[in-house]
Amino acid sequence: MKPRCRAFLVEDNPRSLESLIPALAELACAEVVGFVQREDDALEWLGQHAAEVDVVVLDMFLLQGTGLGVLNAMRERGIDCTVVGLTNHATDDTRARFSAAGADAVFDKMEQTEDFFAFLDTVVRRTRTNEAAVDGH
After folding, report:
1. Do residues 1 and 27 touch, judged by C-beta distance below 8 A?
2. Which of 43, 105, 107, 118 could, after both became Cys, cross-link 112 (CB 3.0–4.6 A)?
3. Is the pLDDT of residue 1 over 50?
4. Domains with residue ranges and CATH for the chain
5. Residue 12: which of 69, 61, 85 has the closest Cα?
6. Which residues form the signal peptide (predicted)?
């Protein structure tokens, strides 16, 4: 069985969600454990399920709030997991702001999907290695 990691998506575009969820399962061996379209909903969900997540994938602009707002609140609350920005607005400024807030990586949805999935592959392998160490294998 391929290693898996648990992903939470914060994305406001239904088409992006429709393509991203199966792609994560197929290309990154990631199980999507939840998804929301608004900053408030993301923070509520993470408040209840943060321990069940290995990676959070954030879009920059949401129906309400921003991915950056989610990330800042996560760090303030001590929620520690891998965070990836995946946005159509991956400008130098956006990348710098995500990085300063503690994102592990930022990718452009249209031009860096291969890099995004390669990065998630490393997260999956790291998650699997950590699980094996805890299990004593």
Report:
1. no
2. 107
3. no
4. 5-135 (3.40.50.2300)
5. 61
6. none
